[in-house]
Amino acid sequence: MSARRARRSAWTRRIIRATAVVLAVFSLLTAALILLACFVNDQRIDRDMGSATATVTEVTDRRAAVEFDAGSGRHVRPVTGVFYPIGLIEGQRVQVEFRRANPDLVRVSGRSWTVAVVPALSVPAVVVPLAALAYAAASPRVHRPTPRVLRTVPR
Questions:
Q1: What is the average per-residue pLDDT within 75-89?
Q2: What is the tens place of the pLDDT at every residue in 91-139?
Q3: 79: which residues sit within 8 A by CB, 6+ positions away?
Q4: For the stretch 119-133, what's the b/e string if a residue is b when 16 or more beta carbons lie within 10 angstroms of its beta carbon?
Q5: Less packed terminus of the chain by CB within 10 Å, N or C?
Q6: What residues contact 117, with CB distance under 8 A and at least 6 apart?
Q7: Could you report the per-residue pLDDT of 37-76, keeping only the tens digit for each?
Q8: Are 17 and 138 in contact (CB under 8 A)?
Q9: Alpha-carbon span 107 to 90, nearest angstrom
Q10: What distance in Å separates the CA atoms of residue 11 and residue 59, rounded to the nearest whole number?
């Protein structure tokens, strides 16, 4: 292997290893921030809680839209939908808890940020092992040139 090819190969391995570390850290950081946001939103709801019976108007892969009366005749349909929408179906009536100061901040009663742990950690559960494999595969030890062993032919 030429010196130029060896340098290019070493540079490529460093890029792969750096990318693997960045992806792993990014996925873990994203999961942590998602859980922190869920926790903070739950705290905001708990501090200024109102409750109502809501009707599920739409369910997609990522969200469930609800409508409810927030009191004083205010009819609310939160733009982002309801937090923790797992298991909801269109037309279902559910109890919700919302922040009275901001009724767009709404969750299904009895659910909390802990419901988000499994979905939030599912991405790092896949990304981190794959990144570790890529990091290990690009390790200099794996790609160390093998020494040539001269065979001697007996005379």
A1: 89
A2: 999 999 999 999 999 999 999 999 999 999 999 999 999 999 999 999 8
A3: 104
A4: ebbeebeebbeebee
A5: C
A6: 35
A7: 999 999 999 999 999 999 999 998 878 999 999 887 889 9
A8: yes
A9: 16
A10: 48
Contact 22, 140 (CB under 8 A): no
- Please give the Cα distance from 16 to 88 (Å, whole number): 42
Rounded to a whole number, what is the distance in angstroms from the first to the last CA of the chain? 32
Q: 139: closest CA among 16, 26, 3, 7?
A: 16
- Residues comprising the chain, all counted: 155
**Cα dihedral 80, 85, 91, 92 sign:** negative
Q: Do residues 135 and 21 touch, judged by C-beta distance below 8 A? A: yes
CB–CB of 48/99 below 8 Å?
Answer: yes
Is pTM beyond 0.70 here? yes
- What is the pLDDT confidence band of residue 152, given thresholds at 50, 70 and 90? confident
Rounded CA-CA distance 59/2 in Å is 59
Please name the residues in contact with 29: beta carbons below 8 A apart, sequence gap of 6 or more. Answer: none
